[in-house]
Design brief:
Layout: H1 11-23, E1 31-32, E2 37-41, E3 44-50, E4 59-64, E5 70-79, E6 82-84, E7 92-93, E8 97-99, H2 111-120, E9 130-135, H3 142-150, E10 154-158, H4 165-176, E11 181-189, E12 192-205, E13 215-225, E14 230-238, H5 247-255, H6 259-270
Parallel strand pairs: 2-9, 9-10
Antiparallel strand pairs: 1-2, 2-6, 3-5, 4-5, 5-8, 6-7, 10-14, 11-12, 12-13, 13-14
Length: about 290
């Protein structure tokens, strides 16, 4: 019975739940920035893997076993969006979007395509609140950012040096010219002194391609221990204009992205929900349940 039911059929149930949360003002405690924004985190996770059990919707990859033999592995994955807030222990899950080969294309479905499909759905929370999407470095590319902008949402996305070389050449030039906006604070963390340096630049080009270029705002946090050792660097691109008043808040929001792994995916897999356990693969949609 479940094998014939597409997981999208669950959307009305999620809508009813969130309409109730809206009526009860439960979502107010998750608001951020101006108390009118909800942070929505996007990320993918795997939940099925087998060299034998599969269906036409499975993704595939070649994997080498301990004996050095290369096997074709079938797997399923999904994006598992949530609402989260810094310094809040609970999260609110939204309807997942399956990463599934369904249209007969030779090219496999992927996390970004699934995220775009999720964005195209009507989300009742967007009727009352602004949405700011958080994601890892995979999301901070032109097609995904443009999709977010087209939907009228904002974004704070991880932006690594290794994948945004043109942007970071500009950052390096700004730093050399001492044109980067910056300020430093100190704090005591776990009994030890730390120095936190916030840097930001507004209106930078995301990449060097004329066809798909756009302006973004960039910021980073560098954490240095009292012994002068750099412990962490966090960097993001966003459409939000960055100022000294909001740069800490923006970076704090960006760093909240880890909650989708720790407080959602990890909970679903290891704390009673058995997401990764195969209770029945089926031929159509059973694997999505």
């Amino acid at each position: 019975t479940l094998d014939d039911i597409d997981s999208d059929k669950l959307q009305p149930t999620f809508n009813k739940i969130y309409k109730l949360l809206l009526e009860k003002n439960t979502l107010e405690k998750y608001t951020y920035f101006d108390n009118k924004t909800l942070l929505v985190l996007l990320d993918g996770t795997y939940y099925h893997s087998s060299t034998k059990i599969h269906c036409e919707h499975c993704q595939t990859r070649k994997k080498t076993d301990a004996k050095g033999n290369e096997n074709l592995q079938y797997y399923h994955s999904a994006i598992t969006p949530i609402i989260a807030k810094p310094n809040t222990n609970t999260i609110l899950p939204l309807l997942p979007e399956m990463i599934s080969n369904t249209d007969g294309n030779d090219k496999q479905d992927c996390e970004i395509n699934a995220s775009k499909r999720w964005l195209d759905k009507i989300h009742v929370i967007a009727k009352k609140y602004k949405l700011t999407l958080l994601g890892d470095d995979l999301y901070s590319r032109y097609p995904m950012i443009q999709k977010i902008i087209d939907k009228g949402y904002s974004f704070i996305l991880v932006c690594k040096v290794t994948s945004h070389k043109v942007l970071y050449k500009t950052v390096a030039a700004y730093k050399q010219a001492k044109s980067v906006k910056t300020f430093t604070i100190t704090r005591i963390h776990n009994g030890k002194k730390q120095t936190l340096t916030y840097n930001w630049i507004n209106e930078m080009l995301l990449n060097g391609n004329k066809e798909d270029n756009m302006e973004v705002n960039w910021c980073e946090l560098i954490i240095v221990n009292s012994d002068g050792k750099k412990t962490n660097t966090f960097s993001f691109v966003t459409d939000l204009k960055i100022t000294k008043k909001n740069v800490e808040e923006i970076i704090e929001a960006g760093r909240t992205r880890w909650k989708i792994e720790n407080e959602n995916n990890n909970t679903l897999k290891n704390h009673g929900y058995d997401l990764a356990h195969n209770y029945g693969h089926g031929d159509e949609y059973l694997s999505q349940k």
